[in-house]
Amino acid sequence: MTLKPKDKAPDFTATDQDGKVHSLKDYKGQKVVLYFYPKDNTETCTKEACNLRDNYTVLKQKGIVILGVSADNEKSHKKFEKKYSLPFTLLADPDKKIINDYGVWAEKFFMGRYYMGILRTTFLINEKGKIDHIIDKVESKNHSEQIMEMWGI
């Protein structure tokens, strides 16, 4: 499935770093940043998460909810959250259901080899549950700025 702007965002249910269950429908009426990243505690993923952390207050003031998703489990997410003081929700998707529903599991090429992995992608979902924008060329160090620019904030 290839999602595009104006599509209804696929609903999901997953647990966060504290074991709390979240569904997309829980956030109806709010803007949601649903960002997919390959792995906790890796260099680029850490830069991306810390950029979102550093701009979290501004995003929250604009009514934006941030949900990070990777195939890591709750325990890994908890360590990542604590180590970098991340103030937002990290959803565990070890069975890759959300990852597949959003079409971000694909073949990648790195250091001369092909492998399957998560494409670093961010979906900006509006208050009605529709996709406003998709950022497929995420700039980890400037991710918050990309989000604000796309939403005209």
Q: Can you offer a commentary on this structure?
A:
The chain is α/β, with parallel strands linked by helices. The protein has a single domain, classed as 3-Layer(aba) Sandwich (Glutaredoxin). 27% of the residues lie in helices and 29% in strands. Strands 5-4-3-8-9 form a 5-stranded mixed sheet. A hairpin with a 5-residue loop joins strand 1 and strand 2 (21-23). The model has no long low-confidence stretch (mean pLDDT 95).
The helix content, as a percent range, equals 25-40%
The secondary-structure class comes to: alpha/beta
The neighbouring-strand order within the major sheet is 5-4-3-8-9
Q: What is the level-2 CATH architecture name?
A: 3-Layer(aba) Sandwich
Radius of gyration based on Cα positions = 14 Å
- State the low-pLDDT regions, or none: none
Number of helices: 5
Here the CATH topology equals Glutaredoxin
Largest sheet: 5 strands, mixed
> What is the C-level CATH assignment?
Alpha Beta
Give the DSSP E fraction (strand runs of 2 or more residues): 25-35%
Mean pLDDT across the residues is: 95
Counted beta strands: 9
